[in-house]
Amino acid sequence: MVAEGAVWGIIALPLAAGALAAAALLPALRPLARASGYVAILGVGGAFALSLLVLDAALGADGAIGFPVRSWLTVGDPTSAGGFEMTVGLLLDPLSAVMVALVSGVSMLVMLFSLGYMRKAVDGEGGAWADYPRYFAYMSWFTAAMLGLVLALNLIQLFVFWELVGLFSYLLIGFWYHRPAAAAAAKKAFIITRIGDFGFMLALLYLYLHRAEFLALGENPFEIPAILAAAPLLPVSVAMWVSLGILAGAMGKSAQFPLNTWLPDAMEGPTPVSSLIHAATMVAAGVFLVARMFPLFAESTVALNAVAIVGGTTAVLAAAMGVVANDIKRVLAFSTVSQLGYMFLALGVGAWPVAIFHLLTHAFFKCLLFLSAGSVHHSVHTFDMRYMGGLRAWMPVTYVLTLIGALSLMGIAPLAGFWSKDEVLAAAWSADGAGSVVVSRLVFVLGMAAVFMTAFYVSRLVLMTFHGEFRGGIDAVPDEERIPDEAHLVGHVHRAESPLVMTLPMAVLAVLAIIAGVALNALTPLGPLPVHGLTHFLGGATRAFDPVIAGASTLLALTGIGLALGMHRRGSLALTDLPQPWSVVHRFLARRLYMDHLYETLIVRRVLYRGLFLATDWADRRLVDGTVDVVGWVGRNGGRAVAQLQTGQVQVYGVAVFMGVIVMLVLFMFQR
Amino acid sequence: MLERLLILSAVLFCIGLYGVLSRRHIIAVLMALELMFNAVNIALVAFSRYVTPADLAGPGGMAENARYVLTGQGLAVFVIVAAAAEVALGLALVIALIRRTDTLDITGVSLMRR
Fold this sequence. Notes:
The complex is a heterodimer. Chain A has 25 helices and 2 strands. Chain A has helices at residues 4-23, 33-60, 94-117, 132-151, 155-173, 180-209, 211-216, 224-230, 236-253, 262-265, 271-280, 285-292, 294-297, 301-324, 328-348, 352-380, 396-410, 416-430, 437-466, 500-521, 533-538, 547-570, 582-590, 595-643, 650-671; strands at residues 70-75, 84-88. In chain A, α5 (155-173) packs antiparallel against α6. Chain B has helices at residues 2-22, 26-50, 54-57, 71-101.
């Protein structure tokens, strides 16, 4: 058993630490800027310790641990359809226990890394630690919001934290707000996720419309356990519409096709931010939400199929776009989108514990890979792989750690990624979920295709960054491609390994990226490790290891690696001069399927600007302004007309009074 | 008898009203105003004399004594006093008007318009 205060403390500690870190923004406390980093790490570290306590309690308990549900807002009589009660509380079950431990743990490691990364390479205004207070405050608050999201009992409560997470994502993407690209990327991320959230909100409204069905069961229509318990009793259409709305929200947050365009741009934020928020935690919130509401999704074949198809499509398309990207962080961003597609795929074929398993392993190895990218940037000051190469000569530790993350991501046994990816594929092939068999098999094929592409682009990343000849780093980047803000870094390439404060968190993540698969979800008994521990803990069905699928996916991955190695030999890995028709495909993918073009030029400029905005502008000028003008005209000219009656002659007024009396008399007589 | 008195009162009132609204000489207007006052006084006294209050008219009431209830007449005396005061005020205004405009014709006075 665990005290309720301890669980609230998981949210409260980072919140308080963030406030303390932000206090260093006060001019008087400016000299303490450096300390704000340590304060934030202490806060998140405390949350991590509490999370482990909570996880331990959850392991000991059977199912969810109950906490009192608190009433926050009551309107009318909550037991009747006219009233409404907003409750808040904690939902601590195996799923949220695993998630809080993951979020707080990874957050702590990333913040540790940030101590080194956010220190300015070249002393600017305000000293080397000038960025610390704002950065660590945002990161702490983000962590608090994410932990609150995971622990939320009520869907509205969850939605509040969901939006807070979006807000801090916005602030952190735009952390370097003086760069136009960062400001634009932040805005884009905010707007596109908001489109998905609109669906989420519609789902909430739809639930509210159907509150009578929950009230008949004596349940609150927004409490997650109540919804899940009532799911089998609800009409299928209700389950379907609510699920699809929630899926829309999850697609926005997890950057699933077609709302995937914001995540690659979000790489404008500091690299540790990309690592924590846009790889390990926030983007996984969509997967978490669908897993959390899974019993509701399971009631609707349509909803499950939609999840699977969205996931499968995203997995392939994003992997294909990752193949042609040259920016190391963009490659990882596309990879993240693709892996999130895998998780959706697993959810869609009904294997939600597998999705969470892949979420965990992915969090470790993708977080590691992003930190590697940060470490590389720390040395060469650019993210463009075309100007890297040969870095293993002076970054051996980063190289080895990157290699571990890369192999894990590719799904090479026995690293973590292999086990989780294999389980996803096996679940898709077996098609024993509530979705349709055809869809399940189809997404299996898509998943297999993504395995090949993943292996290729990850190998390409490693080879272009660490192998071959060094191509000059930021010094070699042409002026027109360089971020203006980084001009002062030219000439500061230092051929050295990153400091220990950066490599140590990476090493911890690397260890996790190696062992997490076997340790969490071993397929066969291995010493003290429980078989399928995580799946059992989360409460899902288990599936025997399928050597045929594992062999096939490994073979595909090795083919991808082989292709990349072959192209590396011939020096054509930069994919610059490809023969027809590959060059056409390359351009198509490099322009990201023209999705940005579609959204910005067609939808925003044409449909919204030319159509909607000009129409509303016309309506505003002519109809609204016109009406107001007419009202003014009537008042002005009417007043002038009435003013003529004011003669100043007492006797004229007397006549008017007399007329009035007569009118009143007549009225009284007729009223009788 | 009441009807005749009320007709007298109404006629007097209308004459007064006509005078107030039509005369141009301010003293004539004031005099017409006095006529209206007295028309009202006549109506007041007539009602008081001929209409029995309800609580005196009921069974066991003192309808016979009603003619000695002099409330209306008393009120008429008060109105006469108020009218006298009003005339004093009106004449003061007339003097002020003469000082300012050197005329007694009120159609030329439209200060309220400004």
